[in-house]
Amino acid sequence: MDIAVNTSQSRYHVNEKGYYGQFGGAYIPEMLYPNVEELRQQYLQIMSDPGFQQEFEQLLKDYVGRPSPLYFAKRLSEKYKAKIYLKREDLNHTGAHKVNNTIGQILLAKRLGKKRIIAETGAGQHGVATATVCALMDLECIVYMGSVDIQRQAPNVARMKMLGATVVPATSGSKTLKDATNEAIRDWINNPVDTHYIIGSVVGPHPYPDMVARFQSVISEEIKQQLLEKTGSEDPDYVIACVGGGSNAAGAFFHFTDRGNVKLVAVEAAGKGVNSGYSAATSQLGRLGIIHASKTLLMQTDDGQIVEPHSISAGLDYPGVGPLHAHLYETGRAQFLNATDDESLAAAYELSLLEGIIPALESAHALAKLKELPLQPDNVVVVCLSGRGDKDLETYIKHLK
Amino acid sequence: MNRIDQLFRNKPQRILNIYCTAGFPALNDTVSVVEALQQSGADMVELGMPFSDPLADGPVIQDSSTRAIANGMRISVLFDQLKGFRDRVSLPVILMGYMNPVLQFGVENFCKKCAEVGIDGLILPDLPMDEYEHEYKPLFEQYGLHLIFLVTPETSEARIRKIDSLSKGFVYAVSSSSTTGKDKVMADQQVYFARLKAMELKNPVLIGFGIRDRGTFETACTNSNGAIIGSAFVKAIENSTNLQHDIQSFVKGII
Ligand SMILES: Cc1ncc(COP(=O)(O)O)c(C=O)c1O
């Protein structure tokens, strides 16, 4: 278990200016400059400190429960006629991959001397993971969450409150993840000295996309070792992950981006259908633009207003995508597919019945695309099961025929 | 000579710069608001190009932006409205807005249109200094547009000097690190303003964010060349049924 801190030569990693190809950068107002610049100057140095690494690894092991299992899904494999492994991020403490990043960032915030933590959340998984580490470290925690998401992810709101966090509803725009992120950024502008903003995905100004990807890279680090033990090779044929902002995918892809024999598959939320007007499939619907201080693919009107996305899954309901993924898309290094609300619901039921695992709606999007890949019987396929479905039970029950 | 430079040459002190979102309160009010401001004695106007996700703005300007977009405001409409406005308006006019709509319009095309209608400067809060310096500076200069940068109480002296050297027109000193429309205590900021004044920058300094009435305007003027009022003005006209009158009495209340 190692955080990747060596600045790599990979063309898929961030360059010294904070860009992946033409995507990335830090389009921040001056009010954010001191905080973002402090992070930029210090993140790699802090992350490569042996004391930091030891504390990070210890917490991932004893508190989060890592390494998360790589589970051979026998019945799913029989159905799709390939060797399908599930990377069980759903078994992490708090129920999703998000905690890998919040553990890392809370340790970083402590070293930067910050007293107050803010975060945005969509599905509430990142909010819960942030509230959790704030309780652990005894730091004040404020989570911004769209008022629509507060409704549809009620169990996570209750968890955050029980963990001592203040949940502030975002009531502007589409009242979802994008708007919660706006409010968190505004909070940071208004609290420039004592506050650290724990962004929950590989989005936002440089260095966030790179920093979050490095904290999440533990996912592919473990997959390599686990596959070596189970199959005799570190490399699978496919890695499949859902993409909202793209942090679980970034973590699952991280150590494979330069291994050309490993096919990377990113699955976005099609909502009611890519061309239905109710979708969040950014790579299909977006154009180059700036969202949350990052130049990336963005769903927008022809005059540059950000479009309100739609997905049944709050965690994928975002009109942008991390700049790393925009680059993976543009270069063709990753294949971008998308799954509709209905396909994802069906995939969630399928996994529940075949394997006894109720996945998060987000992760179900990745599972939904197994049927579309040209799989061969000896193909090794890793699906990143980014989270568990407890938070989505109400939605699942509503759709139970 | 650029109208902003001309203004500071003729009147170096007590500059009143008023911000209003374009296409607000009604779509076609843009130019009437600018004219009324000129008649009332304001020195400069900042027109906001509304954006769906204005990160550096508080609720008042966010709401005015949402309303302006719903009214049908967009950059191309704004340029149509401004066509010929220089026949009636002589004070410097600055466009303020976020980068994304400008990128979609096309930066060069945007600059060209600005020059055509008679815009003097730009405030693009999410355009970083480095990007400007390496990517856009020659273009903005070619079209005679002054790019105005922000500095905050947290900005280091070295960076303020760099910003000053890249800026033209004036430097926009944000009175506290905040989104627009927050009233933080002005007294606490006097140290910062005095520090700015002592730096003897090459550009004039205007203070903005939280200036809302005569008192805050006077305080700002003691350590700078003037001030910028945004949220308080937007609030004053949001339900106006007589723009001319309400703008007149707002400005009278300040100067
Ligand atoms: C379980 C789960 N998976 C995936 C996501 C999407 O985020 P990302 O694309 O950053 O992995 C979320 C976000 O809330 C989530 O909770």
Task: Report what the structure shows.
- The complex is a heterodimer of chains A (401) and B (255).
- By secondary structure, chain A is of the alpha/beta class.
- Chain A folds into 2 domains: 27-62 and 98-207, Rossmann fold, CATH 3.40.50.1100; 64-95 and 217-399, Rossmann fold (3-Layer(aba) Sandwich).
- Chain A is 41% helix and 18% strand.
- Chain A has 16 helices and 14 strands.
- Chain A has helices spanning 33-47, 50-64, 74-80, 98-111, 125-137, 147-152, 154-162, 177-190, 208-216, 218-231, 247-253, 282-285, 323-331, 341-355, 361-367, 393-399; strands spanning 19-20, 23-24, 70-72, 83-88, 116-121, 140-146, 166-170, 195-197, 238-242, 263-271, 287-291, 294-298, 334-340, 380-385.
- In chain A, the strands form 4 sheets. In chain A, strands 3-4-14-9-10-13 form a 6-stranded mixed beta sheet, sandwiched between helices. Chain A has a 4-stranded parallel beta sheet with strand order 7-6-5-8, sandwiched between helices.
- In chain A, α5 packs parallel to α7 and α10 crosses α11.
- In chain B, β6, α8 and β7 form a beta-alpha-beta unit.
- Chain B has helices at residues 3-10, 30-40, 59-71, 75-82, 99-105, 107-117, 129-142, 157-166, 186-198, 214-222, 231-237, 243-252; strands at residues 15-21, 44-48, 93-96, 121-123, 146-147, 150-151, 171-174, 205-208, 226-229.
- The model of chain B has no long low-confidence stretch (mean pLDDT 95).
- Chain B has a 9-stranded parallel beta sheet.
- Helices cover 47% and strands 14% of the residues of chain B.
- Chain B has a single domain, classed as Alpha-Beta Barrel (TIM Barrel).
- Chain B has 255 residues and is α/β, with parallel strands linked by helices.
- Chain B has 12 helices and 9 strands.
- The A-B interface holds A 25-31, 33-34, 172-173, 178, 182, 185-186, 189-190, 192-193, 287-293, 298, 300, 302-306 and B 51-53, 55-56, 58, 62, 66, 69, 74-76, 98-105, 125-128, 131, 149-152, 154-156, 159, 174, 177-179, 182.
- Pyridoxal-5'-phosphate (PLP) binds next to α5, α11 and α15 of chain A.
- Pyridoxal-5'-phosphate binds at residues 96, 122-123, 125-126, 201, 242-249, 315-316, 360, 362-363, 386-387 of chain A.
- Chain A: Pathway: Amino-acid biosynthesis; L-tryptophan biosynthesis; L-tryptophan from chorismate: step 5/5.
- Chain A: The beta subunit is responsible for the synthesis of L-tryptophan from indole and L-serine.
- Chain A: It comes from Chitinophaga cymbidii.
